[in-house]
Here is the input.
Amino acid sequence: MMAKLFRAVIMGPPGSGKGTISERIAQSFGLKHLSSGDFLRENIAANTEAGVLAKTYIERGLMVPDHVMTRLLLPRLEEMTRHSWLMDGFPCTLAQAKALNSTCDLDLVISLNIPYETLKDRLSDRWIHLASGRVYNMGFNPPRVQGRDDLSGEPLIQHDNDQPEALVSRLRHYKDVAKPVIDLYKSKGILHTFSGTETDRIWPYINSLLSTKIPSRPETDTQHIPLP
Ligand SMILES: Nc1ncnc2c1ncn2[C@@H]1O[C@H](COP(=O)(O)OP(=O)(O)OP(=O)(O)O)[C@@H](O)[C@H]1O
Ligand SMILES: Nc1nc2c(ncn2[C@@H]2O[C@H](COP(=O)(O)OP(=O)(O)O)[C@@H](O)[C@H]2O)c(=O)[nH]1
Here is the structure.
């Protein structure tokens, strides 16, 4: 008999560790880590119609409109009928959550609750490999060669958006749009919130929660598959 498929979402403000924790979940439990940011970057690189449109928003530091996000993502999720997945970065508005709701039943939502000072410190030290979206932190997970991506050797950059001046308004925006989404998942009884200042201390709790819901998988079995 085929194991039941598992569908989860991870939410949290910028810098809360969604990407970092998603990678650990993907490695430990063999879920596919789907990322809205990766998906958008791939569409931009491929010059798709939606990618060209999304780029005009991302370049201005704006959210991509809901209808563009749902039109891009939902058909891809609908195709994933044989895979368990964890979605990072979507939904982030109530309209996106409602659209996702009409496509699939989520089993679990992880919400990360991290203090502002921690977010500020992490993001001001976050370095990104633009083409892949791989992230580093000079203290927590530094690249092997300073300023260079581990896999491609290409230069790493910092986003202006990650600097403290931009962070306050990004966080305010996150709180406004995420609140009704969190309330929705709470009312469905699938929300699990984790608070703390260190990913390594939060991780064991997430790990044990997931262990009660899905069998763990050997590391060699794992994959991070960006959506095409
Ligand atoms: N669900 C979404 N709805 C609207 N826009 C989105 C969504 N997900 C991603 N985006 C857009 O794509 C950009 C890149 O997303 P990505 O998740 O890689 O990075 P980010 O903004 O640095 O987020 P974080 O700091 O939380 O990692 C976002 O800044 C936003 O403009
Ligand atoms: N110092 C520190 N940095 C962390 C920790 N967890 C994640 N990071 C770093 O903080 C930054 C934000 O994490 P990321 O996973 O990108 O968060 P996201 O924006 O929610 O996807 C990255 O540079 C991570 O490497 C932690 O526990 N301590």
Remarks:
- The first helix runs from residue 18 to 29.
- The pocket of adenosine-5'-triphosphate (ligand 1) is lined by residues 14-15, 19, 36-37, 40, 57-58, 63-64, 69, 89-90, 92, 96, 133 (CB under 6 Å).
- The chain has one domain: 7-214.
